[in-house]
Amino acid sequence: MANKITTYQEDLIEALKKPREAAAYLNAAMEEDDRAVFLLALRNVAEAHGGMASVAEKARLNRENLYRMLSERGNPEIKSVLRLLQSMGLKLSVEPKNKRAKSSKIRKAA
To answer: How far, in Å, CA of 81 to CA of 3, rounded?
Structure first.
């Protein structure tokens, strides 16, 4: 029985079907501080979730606009990114740079 050989891209797409993997991948892409890298990561996650047409339909976005939005030169609006992430079972969150930082407490005078 011959072993099936897969490409890196095929393995990546398969891994990105898992929400935790997709979230970690997108977070790593954001840390690169390069819009093109993040948009490529979003394209890969979209592919893992059924492809652009399927994701566009779920997110209620125009497929052609989604392709443009996620192109290397794309400049998506935040509401479009949020809809796209939500359609793939993901969400955007913000956290402090320094994970040790404690939240400041505002105390009102009694």
So the answer is: 39
Average pLDDT over residues 10-14: 96
**Contact, 16 vs 22, CB < 8 A?**
yes
Phi first, then psi, for residue 4 (nearest 5°) are -80, 130
pLDDT in tens, 82-91: 999 999 999 9
* H-type alpha helices, 32-107: 35-48, 52-59, 63-69, 78-87
Integer Cα distance of 36 and 30 in angstroms: 10
**21 vs 32: CA distance, rounded Å:** 17
pLDDT of 106 reads: 56
